[in-house]
Amino acid sequence: MSEENLQSMSDLVSLCKSRGFIFQSSEIYGGLGSCWDMGPLGVELKNNIKNAWWRSMTFRDDVDGVDAAILMHPLVWKASGHVDNFTDPLVDCKSCKGRFRADQIDLKAPCPTCKAKDSFTDIRNFNLMFTTHMGAVQETAAEIYLRPETAQGIFVNFLNVQSTMRRKLPFGIAQIGKAFRNEITPGNFIFRMREFEQMEMQYFIKPGTQAEAMEMWKETRFQWHLDMGLRKEKLRFHKHEALAHYADAAFDIEYEFAHGWGEMEGIHSRTDFDLKQHMEFSKKNLMYVDQMDGNKKFIPYVLETSVGADRSLLAILSDAYRVENKGDAEKERTVMRFKPSLAPIKAAIMPLMKKPELEGTADKLLRELQKDFKCDYDTAGSIGKRYRRQDEAGTPACITVDFDTLTDQAVTVRHRDTMVQERIALDKVKMYLKDTFNL
Ligand code: ATP
After folding, report:
1. 196 class by beta-carbon count within 10 Å (0-12 exposed, 13-18 middle, 19+ buried)
2. pLDDT in tens, 340-365
3. Which residue's alpha carbon is at the smallest distance from atom 2 of ligand 1?
4. Interatomic CA distance for residues 351 and 362, integer angstroms
5. Phi and psi dihedrals of 282, rounded to 5?
6. Which ligand 1 atom minimizes the distance to the CA of 192?
7. How far apart are CA 107 and CA 284, in angstroms?
8. What separation in Å is there between the alpha carbon of 306 and the centre of ligand 1?
């Protein structure tokens, strides 16, 4: 059997649309630049990824979760440095009006789009934050921002969480939520979006322990991506040589996407920059009192792990994509080899024919399995066609109810990856799926 990995992003984009994973935002109006909607399968898969992250980060004895508001006090973004520094250098081509990031093109070369020479404007710094207005009357209302990262919602709640949960260092706060960036050069499907979701955790530590914390979280987070089923050879660390103003060390976990290696997660040692800034701007005391060490007072350091839920989704979609027996009209199939616990649909129930006696049994099985898993019920077309559809959805098991079922009270379970078929007693199907696929 021949097997081919994902060759181009456009193959994935078309599968995602045709199977209902991801649609363009506002598609019937021609779309909205770099905004995407999760379809029925996309939302299930993404929820499963977010749940896996949430469990791995908060089902531990040193991390709590929060869900902070997207809209925050405008001073938060002054304190964090986003108002002054969250900018990209921008140039326009005077000839074709194309817009580029000055750090991504050669300004001495002709315009990459229209090839005009000496056509770029001067570099301007463009702030990536979206603004909106709070209050009923726009003119008098204060301008506020849509958060460009979830981290600040964690920093401003440091004291609330520490005191209510009676936490001692080291401890972490985790959050999943939407972030917004008015990216100049978005693209590559959901790799760079203007509205996206982040899964972030800030681990508060004693100054001086950041190297140790970095090692622990690098290992923990790399392992998580492997646990999501990604192939090891498609993952690597990238060490930042040039550091952001708040960091004293930084690594990315990169994945080899169809368009090349790209950042999926950032692991940053952020020193005491954030809490110090919020202490200064809010005038609230955010010092930690170390009762284990003579009530010494200090501002905790922070080790951050920040992964894009959508980039993780893109990596998992890309990694799972396989075309088997390409070019063989009989045997070619595209199959999404998701780890079964992440698969949007766990089982598809298929009565062999549209006959009331088969449908009755199939319906009863569906009701039973649906108590525990997301299932699909498919009666349309030949069994072969139905299998192909489920392969593209990444459904681990297809369950056929046939005429023998009526006498032997058993069904055929067909496995997505091996296509092996097994006969399983109706009353054992649920346990069988749970055991076989670790659900
Ligand atoms: P990049 O260099 O790709 O712009 P970044 O270094 O600005 O990313 P961070 O600010 O560290 O990214 O954000 C943490 C994570 O959030 C990234 O690793 C990525 O997974 C995700 N992320 C950031 N920007 C976007 C975006 N525009 N669309 C989708 N995900 C994003």
Report:
1. buried
2. 999 999 999 999 999 999 999 999 99
3. 263
4. 6
5. -90, -15
6. 28
7. 46
8. 8
pLDDT at 310 over 90: yes
Q: Amino acid identity, residue 172?
A: G
CA–centroid distance, 130 to ligand 1, in Å, is: 16
- Partners of 323 in beta bridges: 4, 334
- Take atom 6 of ligand 1 and give the residue whose Cα is closest: 266
- What average pLDDT does the segment 98-123 reach? 91
In 270-313, at which residue ranges do the beta strands (DSSP E only) sit? Answer: 288-290, 296-298, 301-308
Residue type, 234: K
Question: Which residue puts its alpha carbon closest to atom 16 of ligand 1?
Answer: 308
- Residue 255 reports pLDDT greater than 70: yes
**Which of 245, 311, 312, 318 has the most ligand 1 atoms within 8 A of CB, as the residue to mutate?**
311
Strands 63-65, 195-205: pairing kind: unpaired
Asked if residues 66 and 161 have their Cβ atoms less than 8 Å apart, the reply is yes
Q: pLDDT per residue over 134-148, tens digit each?
A: 887 666 667 899 999
Q: Which atom of ligand 1 is nearest to the CA of 200?
A: 14
- Given the CA of residue 262, which atom of ligand 1 is nearest to it? 3
Percent above pLDDT 70 for the chain: 99
Instruction: Encode pLDDT of 168-194 as tens digits.
Output: 999 999 999 999 999 887 779 999 999
Domains of the chain (ranges; CATH) run: 3-79+147-319 (3.30.930.10), 345-437 (3.40.50.800)
pLDDT of residue 141: 66
What is the Å distance from ligand 1's center to 349 Cα? 39
Residue 428 CA from chain centroid, whole number: 35
Pocket of ligand 1 (CB under 6 A): 149, 181, 183, 192-193, 196, 198, 263-266, 306-308, 310-311
| pLDDT, average across residues 388-417 | 97
Upper half-sphere CA count for residue 384 (Cβ side, 13 Å): 5
Compute the distance from residue 196 Cα to the ligand 1 centre, in Å: 9
Instruction: Decide: 395 and 417 in contact? Cβ < 8 Å.
Output: no
Decide if pLDDT at 99 tops 90. no
pLDDT tens-digit readout, 44-94:
999 999 999 999 999 999 999 999 999 999 999 999 999 999 998 899 999
Question: Are 341 and 48 contacting, i.e. CB atoms less than 8 angstroms apart?
Answer: yes
Which amino acid residue places its CA nearest to atom 3 of ligand 1?
Answer: 263
Cβ atoms < 10 Å from Cβ of 238:
14
308 C-alpha to ligand 1 centroid (Å): 6
Distance from the alpha carbon of residue 437 to the mean position of ligand 1, in angstroms: 32
